[in-house]
């Protein structure tokens, strides 16, 4: 099964998601934002703590189901002194996910700049009652 991949997720976050309750994450890394433009609620996503540059077949991760997804811009204003201020815009994605299964990446596609990262995952051959 092929699905999009979010990489570089903190191991503590992945561990918390494995407890089964839906969790909301705010992501700001460019490669994960680009990948999330391909996602829709109801789809499965592969999440791993491995960085995008190091992602390769055999790396472990988890499958999560997307419950909700919003991508938006935030305006930040930084005041240095009363006469000078700087405005910035930052794009971020808020995604609510629910744990589905642990899995391994079988193959990896789209590791280049501007491409969504897609992995083929190994389907579970052993099922656990939940």
Explain what the structure shows.
The chain has 130 residues and is mainly beta. It is 11% helix and 51% strand. Strands 1-3-4-5-6 form a five-stranded mixed beta barrel. The protein is elongated. The two termini are 22 Å apart. The model has no long low-confidence stretch (mean pLDDT 89).
Which strand order spans the largest sheet, edge to edge or round the barrel?
Answer: 1-3-4-5-6
Strand content: over 45%
Output the CATH class name.
Mainly Beta
Please state the overall shape, judged from the principal axes of the Cα atoms. elongated
| Rg, nearest Å | 17 Å
Number of domains: 1
CATH topology: Archaeosine Trna-guanine Transglycosylase, Chain: A, domain 4
The unreliable regions are none
In CATH, the architecture is Roll
Distance from N terminus to C terminus (CA atoms, Å) equals 22 Å
Please identify the structural class as seen in this structure: mainly beta
Tell me, rounded to a whole number, the average pLDDT. 89
Largest sheet: 5 strands, mixed, barrel
Give me the number of helical elements: 2
Helix content: 10-25%
What is the string of helix and strand elements? EHEHEEEE
């Amino acid at each position: 099964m092929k699905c999009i991949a979010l990489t570089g997720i903190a191991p503590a976050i992945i561990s918390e998601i494995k407890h089964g309750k839906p969790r909301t994450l705010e992501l700001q890394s460019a490669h994960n934002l680009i990948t999330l433009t391909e996602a829709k609620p109801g789809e499965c996503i592969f999440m791993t703590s491995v960085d995008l540059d190091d992602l390769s077949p055999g790396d472990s991760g988890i499958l999560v189901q997307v419950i909700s997804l919003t991508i938006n811009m935030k305006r930040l204003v930084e005041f240095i002194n009363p006469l000078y201020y700087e405005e910035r815009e930052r794009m971020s994605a808020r995604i609510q996910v629910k744990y589905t299964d642990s899995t391994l990446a079988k193959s990896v596609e789209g590791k280049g700049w501007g491409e969504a990262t897609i992995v083929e995952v190994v389907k579970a051959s052993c099922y656990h009652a939940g």
